[in-house]
Amino acid sequence: MNRIEVCYSPALFDLYKNKDAYVVVVDVLRATSSICTAFSHGVSSIIPVKTRDEAYAYKQKGFLVAAERDGIKLDFADFGNSPYNFSKENVFGKHVVYSTTNGTKTIQIAAHSKGVLIGAFSNISTLTNWIAKKNAPVIILCAGWKNKYNIEDSVFAGALTERLLATNAFYTDCDSAHAALDLWKHNKHDLRALIDICAQRERLRKNKLDDCIDFCLQLDSCNVVPIFNGTALVNAEI
Ligand code: MLT
To answer: At what angle do helices 151-166 and 175-187 cross, to 10 degrees?
Structure first.
């Protein structure tokens, strides 16, 4: 049996990191939901970059760039971070450079593990089945908000923990996994009510970017497993 752990912030990741574990990066509102949407619409790869300058340099070289800070699209970017931006029309067959406030940095910090995977409600079953075949420990890494805890990633961590435990290939002795599981079990029948108290929900509302929330909470709307190859996210074979 392999162990599941949940890390609630990129700032805590040093305490969890394990080169033999798969790390599932989670940023439900909105980075990882957008990445899954992009792969379900046939993007070739997504190159996550940490800084605005790196994203700008790619733009100068002619790359398609999706980038935001604090939710707002950067002025030079082709589009921002709504999953609706990653339509088939915009991304099919393309390599997209991607820079976001929390999500893309979180992918980079997990790079020295067995594999970095992208998790969202939209790919939760496909992801569970993929991981269950691998016989390795799993760390669910919440992107949070600027290193702080957030509810939306934590409740997703609970949902994924529940599904992984149900495969009987995993166990957990991790208090943060148990807490996430509890949060999920108490709220799974009305997830939207829980999300409505989240700080990110309010930030998105203020910026009129909250039209994608129900979309981001929809379970199993796609069957992709994006995986980081050290440079870019690509589609893992499922
Ligand atoms: C992020 O990666 O920081 C978030 O997804 C931010 C957002 O999309 O508003």
So the answer is: 100
